[in-house]
Amino acid sequence: MSTEDSHTRSLSLTAEPASPPDVAADGTWLACIACGETFAPFETIRYTCDSCDGLLEVRYADLPTFDDFSGRGVWRYAEALPLDVDVTIQEGDTPLYRVPRLEADLGVESLRIKHEGMNPTGSFKDRGMTVGVAVAAELGVDRLACASTGNTSAALAAYGSRGGMETLVLLPAGKVAAGKIAQASLHGARILEVDGNFDHCLDIVQELATRGEAYLLNSLNPFRLEGQKTIGLEILEGFRDDYGAWPDRIVLPVGNAGNTSALYKAFRELVQAGELEPEDVPKLTGVQAEGAAPMVEAIEKGADAVRRWDEVETRATAIRIGNPVNAPKALPGIRETGGTAISVSDEQITAAQRDLAEEGIGVEPASAASVAGLRALRERGVVDDAERVACLTTGHLLKDPDAAAAAGREPEPVPADTEGVLTVLTGDK
Ligand SMILES: *Cc1c(COP(=O)(O)O)cnc(C)c1O
Ligand SMILES: [Zn+2]
After folding, report:
1. Which residue's CA is the nearest one to ligand 1's atom 1?
2. pLDDT tens profile 357-398
3. Cα(330) to centroid of ligand 2, in Å?
4. What are the φ/ψ torsions at residue 154 (nearest 5 degrees)?
5. Cβ distance 59 to 29 under 8 Å?
6. Domains with residue ranges and CATH for the chain
7. Secondary structure of residue 190 in the 3-state scheme
8. At what angle do helices 125-139 and 151-162 cross, to 10 degrees?
9. Which residues contact ligand 1 via a Cβ below 6 A?
10. Are 163 and 132 in contact (CB under 8 A)?
């Protein structure tokens, strides 16, 4: 069998549950999505396949049903996660907001905003870190590292500190929003500003990890994606409880395509456990910025792999990524669920940031890409008016205060007396 065949098969929605090789005490093992080779998860540190360098995925001897979930937050889904010890700051359990005006404006049956900016450090990265740092503790490492467009470094710094470990972050100099650097800094990370873009930072940190200098916590690390699966599980439970139906579509911003891969994995596991019919799996719909859209290019061309973009630019710095490492997991996710991918301009992103702000929801630019993408897909007639849609907003407004101020209203200078203030106010009329 060719690598291509086994790859496609193991990532198919209707793939048979895998039979366990030597499993760890928690019932998990690692499998290569390209060649199928399996590994014990907690004996040796590895991020990719020893034989073919393919991406690894966590597999489970027993897949849980919805009845197995209890409690709140990411660890509500402990039965769907590796290990049962955690390094937690009470992540997850984020709001699934109703947005009646935006829903009417976009003209879909129902629209919900899953606001991941409401996590402890203000982005979904916390869901991956609570699991990833727990695994790091299990492996006994003492130094954690990541390359980051900002939010991963904030989460790594906070969770690493919480777990009593040293943290090292590599950031593209001048391209990280102020709030994110402030977080990494105060939580005590050693911050290295690289004279290059995110993809260069990731190349370097992968090298450092391979040489044993630090434990890598980018989304190439398969354990992080396990934590991020819980976004999909929360969205499903939220729609089920509020509408008595699953969402038809989930629209999300795409950078390294970790979330796209993680949500797809959550849905595949539910299908394998008999909890979700394959035709009920939400259509995964990825949105990128026009200046950094290699995934969109691959989907539009029907390509099996993404072409690395060497030059990337967008005001949505969190998705300013030209070489999405999780593409081999995410492309089948978009295709097998009947989803699609679309790119939007920075102007469309800022307009969507304002749309959300009008509903009281404050997000950073990358997050607003989901709503901008949904609008564009409605205009193109790709999204039906009968659809129930969830848009994922990945990070909080305060992450990027400069972008928010630039998109919002200008403060007006006034004199320090009521009459003077009234003059300015009536001057409006
Ligand atoms: C990391 C990040 C993304 C990109 O997510 P991927 O899982 O890498 O596709 C999008 N938005 C924000 C705010 C992020 O921090
Ligand atoms: Zn392999």
Report:
1. 318
2. 999 999 999 999 999 999 999 999 999 999 999 999 999 999
3. 17
4. -65, -45
5. yes
6. 1-62 (no CATH), 96-122+225-407 (3.40.50.1100), 125-221 (3.40.50.1100)
7. strand
8. 40
9. 123, 125, 151, 219, 253-259, 318-319, 364, 366-367, 394-395
10. no
Number of H helices, E strands in the chain: 14, 13
State the residue for tokens 């710095």. Answer: 317
Most informative mutation of 169, 259, 288, 306 for ligand 1 (most atoms within 8 A of CB):
259
- Which residues have a Cβ under 8 Å from the Cβ of 110 and sit 6 or more positions away? 103, 243, 388, 389
CA 322 to centroid of chain Cα atoms: 16
pLDDT for residue 22 is more than 90: no
| Residue 406 identity (one-letter amino acid) | A
CA angle 22/36/129 to nearest 5° reads 75
- Greatest pairwise CA separation for the chain in angstroms: 82
Structure tokens at 346: 């920075």
Please identify which residue in the block is written with the tokens 């690395």: 308
Residues 6+ apart with CB under 8 A from 202: 147, 218, 220, 323, 325
Residue with tokens 């105060």: 186
Task: State pTM to two decimals.
Answer: 0.96
Of the listed ranges 15-19, 28-32, 292-296, the least confidently predicted one is 15-19
